[in-house]
Specification:
194 residues, seven-stranded antiparallel sheet, single chain
């Protein structure tokens, strides 16, 4: 039970430190993506019912099972399509606790900046570490992951952001979060200074 409290404490601190409509956030698709991620995945972490409640409050029904699988990748759960002023998005919540937000179109640099703004708001003593990822990294597509945890905690939260600048891709961005063991947080090597 104690191990389950660590990710919950991480998310509670992060949610309190990053209001959904932060004044310094860019007023574009990256900000909409960030707010959607904050208001769904971040706000509901550890309680999938909260994602459903958010969707119900906003009059959004889950996608049919066949369409939802495009976002659930074979896992059990639910997904919703959302249109905002800046574009088309989807939110997926798997039954095993992974939450993700997808964007049909995205500006990768703006999304990375928005995600880093969110992670820079993590209060002490929580720590953020960029970690190695197994996601796709090839020309035009890039995946970055960050681990957030309390010092010496056995578990934490893994944030992953995948972006693509390829206009032929059906989705150009995906951000997800999941509770994982901190032993999986293998830091990205920092280049040596000359």
């Amino acid at each position: 039970m104690r191990n389950l409290l660590y990710p919950a404490a991480v998310m509670a601190a992060l949610a309190l430190s990053s209001p959904a409509g932060a004044a310094d956030a860019p007023a574009d698709g990256a900000a909409d993506f960030g707010r959607l991620f904050t208001n769904t995945c971040l706000a509901a972490f550890g309680d999938a019912r909260k994602v459903e409640q958010f969707m119900e409050t906003n009059g959004l029904a889950p996608l049919p099972a066949g369409s939802a699988q495009s976002f659930l990748l074979g896992k059990a759960g639910k997904a919703w399509a959302i249109s905002l002023g800046s574009g088309n998005y989807a939110v997926a919540q798997t039954d095993d606790g992974v939450c993700a937000v997808f964007a049909r179109q995205a500006q990768p640099d703006a999304l990375v900046a928005e995600f880093q703004r969110l992670l820079n708001s993590v209060p002490a003593p929580l720590q953020v570490t960029e970690v190695k990822t197994s996601g796709p990294n090839r020309e035009g597509t890039h995946t970055r992951s960050w681990g957030v945890n309390a010092p010496d905690a056995p578990s934490g939260v893994l944030f992953t952001l995948t972006t693509s600048n390829d206009p032929s891709m059906p989705l150009q961005a995906m951000a997800s979060m999941a509770s994982v063991s901190t032993s999986e947080f293998i830091p990205v090597a920092t280049p040596k200074q000359r």
